[in-house]
From TrEMBL:
GO terms for molecular function: phosphopantetheine binding. SUPFAM superfamilies: Acetyl-CoA synthetase-like, ACP-like. InterPro entries: AA_adenyl_dom (IPR010071), ACP-like_sf (IPR036736), AMP-bd_C (IPR025110), AMP-bd_C_sf (IPR045851), AMP-dep_synth/lig_dom (IPR000873), PP-bd_ACP (IPR009081). GO terms for biological process: amino acid activation for nonribosomal peptide biosynthetic process; secondary metabolite biosynthetic process. PROSITE patterns: CARRIER (PS50075). It holds the Pfam family AMP-binding_C. One of its GO terms (cellular component) is cytoplasm. This is Carrier domain-containing protein.
């Protein structure tokens, strides 16, 4: 549907409008520190000038890519705006990624500068600094001794940055075996954040930033909040999955990944936390009906199920859940947001009738500019709209093939059904199984591999207990172990993509026509696999090659900060969100899946 949105303006122009009308209001808040809109603008303008000076010094100019490797913080948000004000675009690199993946992203995007929060001289930093010039936000800020003329800087920015210019590149798991970089423009973001209608963000409205910066919804948290005059409250990792910890921030809105929403909904404190909110928008994977029903029983806040691939910036459809609709077996993903168009089609790209399953196509101003440095894949997934004439509106000419099979309900809402390919989601993280399979086949000792998603390991068909399982057949005359294979995978894949279980088979089970019989793939042998994963996590966090089974986490040098990292890794592998302090005091030899399953 067509709604008047400021699509002709850039992100920088819209932020400046908030500075003019809302300058003294709080824009950012973190750990007791607050920063006003005027302060954000002043600081970011100066850092933008420093970035331009640095680009000139290294012989670069124009609209180049600048990388940011940092966690959620005030400086990280300011780094993002500084890059945009400098007329450049950015890519976020998760500090927890394996070094090989970090270096690959830097080389692939041809990033000319890497901005980090602190330089502590660790091995990863040394390797990244050898690839690209590195600077901290503070060092860039200190390069400018006097405040630039803000109005003049704004005039220059307004005339040099265009709505169709790239704002950021975000990498997702790739169907070709390598990550896919999605290119998002200023216009794409404005379409999803200003004049949307699914939120009421305004001056003083407190929005929690809880999503990982590598998750596309984090861009909604940042831009929807700051372009509408709200307060972006940056939440520490230790608080994002706790109702009581989040409640202490007195938020109006949270936008949790579905997995975090499910975790929050189960907590006793949910009965007081959710009613205190104005709105909750969860997204990332199929809604859990039990969690939705639990929240709607005692929450008066607006509860919204969001849907949208990274290729459509983030949420492109939304569904407002009521007590009545929460009882539905499958919660719909809703209707399109403003200036967004959807079509449900068959394999020949012909519209299907209401109630009939088909692939969802999405068009409109929120559809991204395609994949970075991959014209072939862009042409396959971003196609000419078959329902619009060649002279039709520009924003409707291209549609994105989501690969999601859906059906339109009688009331016009869309119901998600399944994927057409091997893409899955675990705890809201998008994963292409073929990327994992490709990395496994790169190992010379592996000749065959199948990676599947199982939810019947700890208990029968538990939707929130999904785990990746890799089945491999070794090359004759070569030997390997589950631990060695996992160690090799962690050199490239993010933690959430490393299979929880790796099963070595003599041969793959086949059906009568010679295809792999996935139903015959065995369940993992629990105790060995779970202990192996936990020990791998502990060895990585504690940076030790070997671990004494008789020792516990604390005796091996663990502390509160490293315990938080262990928790984050256990969440990625098993969905565990809480651990008793006593668990860190038991000897490693006593770790069992039964103990983990009781957490």
């Amino acid at each position: 549907m067509d709604v008047k949105q400021p699509l002709e303006k850039t992100l920088c122009q819209l932020l400046h409008e908030q500075v003019i009308t809302n300058g003294k209001a709080v824009a950012l808040e973190h750990d007791g520190r607050v920063v006003s809109y005027a302060e954000v603008w002043s600081v970011c303008v100066n850092v933008a000038s420093a970035i331009r000076n640095l680009l000139t010094a290294i012989g670069k100019d124009g609209k180049v890519c600048i990388a940011i490797m940092a966690y959620r913080s005030i400086q990280t948000v300011q780094s993002i705006w500084s890059i945009l004000l400098a007329g450049c675009h950015y890519v976020i690199i998760d500090p927890d990624l394996p070094i090989e993946r970090k270096l690959w992203i830097l080389r692939e995007t041809k990033a000319v500068i890497l901005i980090i929060n602190d330089i502590d001289g660790n091995e990863d930093e040394k390797q990244t600094m050898s690839v690209v010039p590195t600077a901290t936000f503070e060092s860039l800020l200190n390069q400018i001794k006097e405040t630039d003329n803000i109005s003049m800087q704004y005039y220059l920015v307004k005339n040099s940055i265009k709505p169709d210019d790239l704002a950021y590149i975000i990498f997702t798991s790739g169907s070709t075996g390598t990550p896919e970089g999605v290119c998002t423009t200023h216009k794409n973001i404005v379409c999803r954040t200003v004049g949307v209608g699914c939120h009421s963000i305004r001056s003083g409205y407190r929005v929690g930033q809880i999503c990982s910066l590598s998750f596309d919804v984090s861009t909604f948290e940042i831009y929807a909040t700051l372009l509408n005059g709200g307060v972006l409250v940056i939440i520490n990792n230790s608080a994002i999955a706790s109702c009581s910890a989040l409640a202490a921030h007195h938020l109006n809105m949270v936008n949790p990944p579905t997995a975090i929403f499910n975790t929050l909904a189960k907590q006793p404190e949910a009965a007081s936390f959710f009613p205190a909110l104005d709105a909750v928008i969860f997204a990332g994977e199929k809604a859990n009906s039990k969690s939705v029903q639990a929240v709607t029983q005692y929450a008066s806040s607006m509860l919204i199920n969001g849907y949208g691939p990274t290729e459509t910036t983030h949420n492109a459809l939304c569904y407002i859940i009521t007590k009545e609709s929460s009882a539905l077996h499958s919660i719909p993903i809703g209707r399109p947001l403003p200036n967004t168009y959807m079509y449900v089609v068959d394999s020949h790209l012909k519209l299907v009738p209401i109630g009939v399953s088909g692939e969802l196509l999405i068009g409109g101003a929120g559809v991204s500019a395609g994949y970075f440095n991959d014209k072939k894949l862009t042409a396959q997934k971003f196609i000419m709209n078959p329902f619009i004439s060649i002279n039709g509106p520009k924003n409707q000419k291209i549609v994105y093939r989501t690969g999601d099979i859906v059906r339109m309900l009688e009331d016009g809402n869309i119901e998600y059904q399944h994927r057409v390919d091997s893409q899955v989601k675990i705890r809201s993280q998008r994963i292409e199984l073929c990327e994992i399979e490709s990395r496994l086949l790169d190992l010379e000792e592996i000749s065959e591999v199948v990676v599947i998603l199982r939810n019947d390991i700890f208990e029968e068909h538990a939707a929130d207990q999904q785990h990746l399982v890799a089945y491999v057949v070794l090359t004759k005359a070569l030997h390997s172990t589950e631990d060695r294979i996992r160690c090799c995978l962690t050199q490239w894949l993010p933690h959430h993509m490393v299979p929880s279980f790796i099963i070595i088979l003599e041969t793959m089970p086949l059906n009568s026509i010679g295809k792999i019989n996935r139903k015959m793939l065995p369940k993992p042998a629990m105790i060995k696999s779970v202990r192996s994963i936990v020990l791998t996590i502990l060895a990585s966090v504690l940076k030790k090659q070997t671990l004494l089974g008789s020792a516990n986490f604390l005796q091996l040098g663990g502390h509160s900060l490293s315990a938080m990292e262990v928790m984050a890794r256990l969440y990625q592998s098993f969905g565990i969100t809480r651990l008793s302090v006593t668990y860190f005091k038991v000897s490693l030899s006593t770790i069992t899946p039964t103990k983990l399953n009781r957490l």
